[in-house]
Amino acid sequence: MTGVLPVDKPEGPTSHDVVAMARRALGIRRIGHTGTLDPFATGLLLLCVGQATRLSEYLTGLDKRYEGTARLGVATDSLDRTGRVIAERDWSDHTEAEIRDAFESQTGSILQAPPAFSAKKVAGRRAYERARAGEAVAPDPVPVVIHSLEVTAIEGDLVRFRIHCSSGTYVRAVARDAGDRLGVGAHLSALRRIAIGGFDAAGALPIEGLEDADAVAAALVPPLDALSHLPRMELDDHDVERVGHGRALPASDWAPAAGPVVLTAGSRLVALAEVDGRTVRPRKVFL
After folding, report:
1. What does the angle CA 100 – CA 105 – CA 109 come to, to the nearest 5 degrees?
2. Topology of the domain covering 232-285
3. pLDDT greater than 90 at residue 228
4. Treating both helix axes as pointing N-terminal to C-terminal, what angle do 171-182 and 96-104 enclose, rounded to 10 degrees?
5. 263: which strand partners?
6. CB-based burial of residue 242 (10 Å sphere; 0-12 exposed, 13-18 middle, 19+ buried)?
7. I need a labelling partner for 243 at 20 to 30 A (CA). Which of 25, 47, 136, 195 fits?
């Protein structure tokens, strides 16, 4: 069994828990994921099964889409509802237009400060390890891209929104920064990931479906289909043999100047390669 399995993670388990469930249910040890979801979050988690674990680095950088809910007036140390409340302020003087602007102005290429409770490294240690030890942690801001951010509803102190962002964006930090702009604080109270690149949560397998072999087979995305976001280069039999021996090929006229490319022979995935100028160098061969 090889491919990418979209799973709809429920609230509660960690991403690692879901991987462990899949290993037990499918009887396959070689399973990994392409990006974590916090335990309180729900939605799309991509599991790479069998040889498809070799694809994970080509999927982790895909854009993400989320539906989130922020609560105004309450700040927590983790920036979400699982954390300790560190400040409470009245938010009711702000107009709907001001609240919308505090969220929706966070679009484009921006520098975002990761949460103290994150996996970012600070002086060689994970930020969350230092934060849990009681240290004051301030990870350096990192560049992210927020392609779109739309407030869909404001219900009292709850602000519901949809966001399309680059990999590495912290939606918790979006809520924090909106609260800071308003001067009242805020935290993320709910989060659902609805898409990763071309994968959609609507077609994901419910976690209980892991026990159903037919459901798993129906949901499993073949490796070549999972790489549809990358450019492809079709090989003839001679080139397939060269790639099978790890030898480089000349780039075709339409190939990108640099970056990853999928090498195929008909409907077969031959290799993942890297274009370097006019040369295509195989990195991962699947023959």
Report:
1. 150
2. 2.30.130
3. yes
4. 140
5. 233, 271
6. middle
7. 47
Evaluate the CA torsion angle 116, 37, 59, 48 in order and state its sign. positive
How large is the average pLDDT for residues 187-212? 96
Place 184 in a pLDDT band, splitting at 50, 70 and 90.
very high
Phi, psi of 106 (to 5 degrees): -90, 50
8 Å CB contact between 108 and 145: yes
Q: Where does the chain have alpha helices with state H?
A: 15-26, 96-104, 127-132, 171-182, 213-219, 223-226, 237-244
CB 68 within 8 A of CB 163: yes
Is there a contact between 274 and 260 (Cβ–Cβ < 8 Å)?
A: yes
CATH of domain 64-194: 3.30.2350.10
Question: Residues with Cβ < 8 Å from 95, sequence gap 6 or more?
Answer: none
Name every residue whose Cβ is closer than 8 Å to that of residue 132 and which is 6 or more positions away in sequence. Answer: 117
Pairing of strands 74-76, 108-112: unpaired
pLDDT in tens, 35-45: 889 999 999 99
| Of 30, 37, 34, nearest in space to 57 by CA | 34
C-alpha to C-alpha distances, 80 to 173, 175, 195, nearest whole angstrom: 9, 9, 21
- Residues listed for the chain: 287
Q: Which residue has the tokens 């295509």?
A: 280
Give the CATH number of domain 3-62+198-222; options: 3.30.2350.10, 1.20.59.20, 3.40.50.720, 3.40.50.1000.
3.30.2350.10
What is the set of active-site residues?
38
Residues 58-69 pLDDT 10s: 999 999 999 999
